[in-house]
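New here. Invent one.

***
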Amino acid sequence: FPLALGLYTVNAVYGDTITMPCRLEVPDGLMFGKWKYEMPNGSPVFIAFRSSTKKNVQYDDVPDYKDRLSLSENYTLSIKNARISDEKRFVCMLVTEDDVSEEPTIVKVFKRPSPPEILHQADFLETEKLQMLGECVARDSYPEGNVTWYKNGRVLQPMEEVVVINLQKIVDKSTGLFTMTSSLQYMPTKEDANAKFSCIVTYYGPSGQKTIESEPVVFDVHYPTEKVTIQVLSHSGTIKEGDNITLKCSGNGNPPPQEFLFYIPGEAEGIRSSDTYIMTDVRRNATGEYKCSLTDKSMMDSTTITVHYLDLQLTPSGEVTKQIGEALPVSCTISSSRNATVFWIKDNTRMQTSPSFSSLQYQDAGNYICETTLQEVEGLKKRKTLKLIVEGKPQIRMTKKTNTNKMSKTIVCHVEGFPKPAVQWTITGSGSIINKAKETKYVNGKFSSKIVIAPEENVTLTCIAENQLERTVTSLNVSAISIPEYDEPEDRNDDNSEKINDQAKLIVGIVVGLLLAALVAGVVYWLYVKKSKTASKHVDKDLGNIEENKKLEENNHKSET
């Protein structure tokens, strides 16, 4: 036990039991022992008595210690439920017939305060203004303690007009316990927005000085806006015609401003709105500088918005009908906010070059698409179509050929035209329509109709091709099956050649007959042969005079006869 002022001291905790040994040697001839305490004026108050002979204990009628005292056989005094009023000088007395021995003991009582709390907290703090932050309260301490304020773990030192601390200590007269109340007035800055304020109470216990800290408190610090910022809220990062634009304006104050003025290109005055302003289905004329400011027109920020666009003009477009051989200029022009790429598609196949028609052919017909995109702008794509129809009157070319089996001939009618012509066949004699013709696939305005015949005599076949534009008729002479044909004439002049060949064969037969009849006379035979050669030369030179040569030969034959 520590000594206080050279006297023996007992340190007790408030509410616990105080134990005080007598600290005197029991003398011989002891009659009794007594305990007393001293009043502030020095007068004694006896509280306990124990006889050494009768072994009985008596407690004096002192209200403060009623039912709280206990005196043991070795004269140790115990006081239950220690109170602040128990801080006294107690004296142990041992009495003999000859002497009285006394030994004083000092009692000290300590009470740990309740954990400190920050009460009456401000709802919020405002910068540049000294205001009450709160009160730190620590109750029921003994002896009295001290209170210190902290911010972010550092001691807040008093500073005029910035940190003002006032500490009050109030004692409860009935218990003698102290309540410490420390108020803090504080002028915050913007940096105190997330600062942690706390307080620590310092008190004394039986073993020395100790501390207890309160729970930290964070205050909402209000400060004015010093800067505004405008933002464009967009999912893709780029804006195209037809999109919606959401502008957001914000201020860095606390609380943040709720209303702003938005300045839109083409608008002379600012538009009052909340912190967001929405424009729907924007056009290219929405490109420009956008601004926002506080409602008092102070602190402005701006941003530039580009509304991307893409125009495509195809000339001609839609469905276009032209005649074969005609020219058709085609142009696909674009206008855009950035460089755009253009490509052509014909019948779902990408073209390597742009279409250009100086003389239209059937294979030029089809569905053309001119398409363009802005690759940097998601979803910005345009396309236009041209459905080109190339019309033409039916054109016919006929061919014939004797088949390898020598039993039939194949006659083909090659047809060009669009819309697809309908083909009919007729044959001389009956003039009936031949229904057994086979047609090839119609591709690029061309197809062919084929028939196989076995004529017993010379015939003429007629191919009739007809569409909405015109009806075209072409005929072809075909020899009997006994006369082979392998030529494939390109036009009707070949038919005339066939007639000449037939006539030449007839003349040769007649000449051979005449030669056999002339064998009777050698001289006549020689003359006949000579004249026959002369006639043959004339035939080779001029096929167009076959009829004349025939008549001349007949006259020669008559004279010879």
Residues 489-513, 523-561 have pLDDT under 50 and may be disordered. The two ends are 186 Å apart (CA to CA).
